[in-house]
Amino acid sequence: MDTYDVVVVGGGIAGLSAALYAARQRLKTLVIARDIGGQLNMTTHIENYPAIPKISGPELARRIEQQARGFGAEIIFDEVNAVEKWGDVFLLKTVGGDEYRSIAVVLAFGKTPKELGVAGESKFKNRGVSYCAICDAPFFKGQDVALVSWGDLAREPAVILSSVVNKFYWIYPGERPIHDEEFLQQIEKLGKSIYLPNSEVVEIRGDVKVKSIVVRDRKSGEVREIPASAVFVEIGYVTKSDFVRHLVDLNERGEIIADWEGRTKTPGVFAAGDIVAYPYKQAVISAAMGVAAALSATAYVSKVKGKPVRTLVDWR
Questions:
Q1: Is the pLDDT of residue 52 over 50?
Q2: CATH of the domain at 273
Q3: What is the pTM of this model?
Q4: Pick from 125, 178, 133, 156: nearest CA to 42
């Protein structure tokens, strides 16, 4: 098993910015994330990011991702569910069953996508159950899938799926998925969506991957099984930091307590972005926190390797 210099947990703007700076310092850098963009994927318009008059959240994330990859950062789509300290290295374990070793860890997972909490969901994560249409929809081109989402969160996945899949069953608990008739008319013209109002998924079935979903009508109680190759769940985010509780201090909201350099109570563990106990949750602030954590991680890795630790600036 190779040992990375830095493993970044999370693919939002903080994690991607951390990966960009770590990779630019020629550190062997890995990003482990469930999706690319995180909460940026919920933002249609960003108009207050310095030097960029107007950009969508997903596009901003893609640009930083490309920069990070350009400097050599690796990115895999999985979910870290355990971090253990082994001497001078950390062992990270994922839901997918993989393990990775790293000298330093940057925790930048922000808020985790909410899950349905139904039978089969955990079993088929990364095997048809997805929490990011922008990341995974291309894998299901021309197939029949399901979308569980409503409100503004559903706008982007509905558009993406309409451009990629054969058809998608749109499942939501109310009468309408979005209270924007003009938008719904645009989606309907594309002819890919099948509405399932007042409905909820109660089970996800398959063998090695998703084959179908079981849906219940909340009004009539009727239950039926619908063939689907994937289920895209986009219903918001929650804070899930218990898996690093033994390495960091948390506040009452489950946020990680870190100093302005991104350092936590455990040497080698750094934190950045919305998961940090900092009151201002802004994209530009999360990006800056990711950079600070990466530079601190760079100094830490240099120290562990017995190399000189130097101050890193861009204008020299």
A1: yes
A2: 3.50.50.60
A3: 0.70
A4: 156
Domain boundary among 233, 266, 285: 233
Buried b (16+ CB within 10 A) or exposed e, 117-130: ebebbeebbbebbb
Tokens of 67: 């920069």
- pLDDT for 237 equals 77
**How sure is the predictor about 199, in pLDDT bands with cuts at 50, 70 and 90?**
very high
87 and 69 both lie in a single domain: yes
Q: Would strands 199-206 and 210-217 be described as parallel, antiparallel, or unpaired?
A: antiparallel
Q: Which helix (H) or strand (E) segment is 24 a member of?
A: helix 13-24
Summary mean pLDDT of the chain: 93
Secondary structure letter of residue 274 according to DSSP:
G
The Cα 201–Cα 180 span in angstroms is: 24
pLDDT in tens, 78-133: 999 999 999 889 999 999 999 999 999 999 998 778 899 999 999 998 799 988 88
Give the domain-ending residue among 218, 233, 248: 233
Spell out where 116-172 has E strands: 129-130, 144-148, 167-171
Q: Positive or negative CA dihedral for 61, 64, 69, 73?
A: negative
Q: Are residues 198 and 246 in the same domain?
A: no
